[in-house]
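Sanity check

After download, print the first record. It should look like this:
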Amino acid sequence: MEFTSTPAKSRLLFAGNAILEGIREKNKKWTWQYFAQRRDDRNAYVDLFQKKQLSPLVGPVSSSQGHSSVNVDDFIGPATL
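Expected structure tokens:
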């Protein structure tokens, strides 16, 4: 966004863009693509967590599903997914 000649107009444009961005983010969370991405992330997390629990002495467990360097420790926890 460019700074316009009047500060009042700039503030109004900033506020409008901030509101629209919030609406876009909220709408994005209700798309099928977003649901599918969350499902895939959750499944990857569960698989990695199970591998980590079953083989604690082997070392770091990474995914073999095409994700580049995904590790169980990269996830904060299932509650955040």
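If your output differs, re-run the checksum step. Summary of this record's structure: The mean pLDDT is 80.
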